[in-house]
Design brief:
Elements (H helix, E strand, L loop, with lengths): L3 E4 L9 H15 L4 E3 L6 E5 L3 H11 L8 E3 L6 H4 E2 L3 H10 L4 E7 L5 H4 L4 E5 L4 H9 L4 E2 L14 H8 L5 E4 L10 E4 L6 E4 L5 H8 L3 E2 L27 E6 L2 H17 L4 E5 L11 E4 L6 H17 L4 E5 L6 H12 L4 E3 L6
Parallel strand pairs: 1-9, 2-9, 4-7, 6-10, 11-12, 13-16, 13-17, 14-15, 14-16
Antiparallel strand pairs: 2-3, 3-8, 4-8, 5-6, 6-7, 10-11
Helix pairs in contact: 1-6, 10-11
Bound molecules: adenosine monophosphate and magnesium ion.
Adenosine monophosphate binds next to strand 7 and strand 11.
């Protein structure tokens, strides 16, 4: 298959006539059952018509995604929720009002219109209304309901730029829309509203505190930050080792100087055994590391920047064929919770806690 690449530079009202026409054509591709990758404010999505079972099957095939890992349905208008969700609760209405359009996915009871191919066999459906103007326009032109997981091959980091989508999806899908880099860089927060109290199944930019500010009590799926709970996470996809770099990743927690010394010692030892060693650092500690490739996520104080850069750095280590990676650790509060969730998953929960530090 020849994958067409479309570049869109405008935003919303500023789309040029040509850009609008290109988005209209991409929408037609979706209506006819084809696949289109597109930018959102979180990461790039791999879209197909959510109400067409054949489109959903194609998404799983293009990604190599396990069939029990459900897709998120993207909509462009809140009123479109009614067709795909049953028993829409007051909580859902309140969260939509507070956070849509934006990086929040809600789990609701599905209507009969949503095929089981889209929900991985579940009676619930995940729904999100993105804020990215290119995504919204495409969804509207594509019929209003676009199932879209992240546009990476299963097991690779989610793509934060069209370049990474092309790396994974060239020749596998009909169209890639290049709309620049993701603003947030981590996937949406997922909150399950079919349980009481509501539960966060995947942490993201919209934090549990922000949700609780609207709904009162909101729980966190406790399996998320721990490897040893012995229970399967409630979002089927969270059990897979997503976000996995090809090199073995270890997270090191402790006082800054201890962490630097420990990582440098490991890097020297690994290097002597023929490994190519990478370090995921912050600006503050960057000069202290000695390894083959040291990349900074930005300042430790700027969690939004860290979130934006994380997946790109993991991909860079893959490109450079790094075989061992060490990363600094982050506080797991606020946005840090989403950052640590993704890092721990990428590391297969390999975490070294240095003496004198309780974290
Ligand atoms: P992705 O779009 O690649 O970020 O993956 C979608 C995530 O949403 C996966 O972790 C899924 O397991 C989760 N998800 C989608 N639908 C549901 C659902 N009905 N119930 C629970 N989790 C879901
Ligand atoms: Mg994904």
């Amino acid at each position: 298959m020849n994958t067409k690449i479309i570049r869109i530079q405008g935003q919303g009202e500023n789309f040029s006539g040509g850009e609008d026409m290109a988005l209209r054509e991409a929408g037609e591709v979706l209506r006819r059952g084809g696949l289109v990758a597109f930018p959102t404010e979180t990461v790039y999505g791999l879209g197909g018509d959510a109400l067409n079972p054949e489109s959903s099957r194609k998404i799983y095939a293009a990604k190599g995604r396990p069939a029990d890992n459900p897709l998120i349905v993207h909509i462009a208008r809140t009123e479109d929720l009614a067709r795909i969700a049953d028993r829409i609760s007051e909580s859902a209405v309140q969260l939509a009002r507070a956070f849509w359009p934006g990086p929040l996915t809600m789990i609701l009871h599905k209507s009969q219109e949503v095929p089981y191919e889209t929900t991985g066999g579940l009676d619930t459906v995940a729904v999100r209304m993105p804020s990215h103007q290119v995504a919204r326009r495409l969804i509207s032109y594509g019929g209003g309901y676009v199932a879209a997981p992240s546009a990476n091959l299963s097991g690779r980091p989610s793509p934060t730029s069209a370049r990474y989508v092309k790396e994974d999806m060239d020749g596998r899908i009909d169209v890639i829309i290049d709309g620049g880099d993701g603003e947030i860089g981590l996937e949406s927060t997922i909150v399950d509203l079919t349980v009481s109290p509501p539960q966060v199944l995947r942490p993201g930019f919209i934090t549990r505190d922000m949700l609780a500010g609207v709904l009162g009590q909101v729980d966190l799926d406790r399996t998320l930050l721990r490897a040893d709970s012995g229970q399967a996470p409630r979002a089927p996809g969270m059990k897979y080792r997503h976000y996995a770099p090809q090199g073995e990743l270890t997270i090191v927690s402790g006082q800054a100087e201890q962490v630097t010394a420990y990582i440098n010692a490991c890097a020297a030892e690994d290097g002597s055994r023929g490994h190519k060693v990478g370090v995921i650092a912050t600006d503050e500690e960057l000069p202290g590391y000695r390894a083959d490739l040291v990349c900074s996520l930005g300042s430790r104080r700027d969690e939004e920047e860290i979130a934006r850069r994380l997946y790109g750095i993991l991909r860079r280590f893959d490109d450079e064929k790094v075989t061992r990676i060490y990363s600094e650790c982050f506080d797991d509060t606020g946005l840090g919770q989403a950052i640590m969730n993704r890092l721990l998953k990428a590391a297969g929960h390999r975490l070294v806690v240095l003496e004198g530090n309780q974290k």
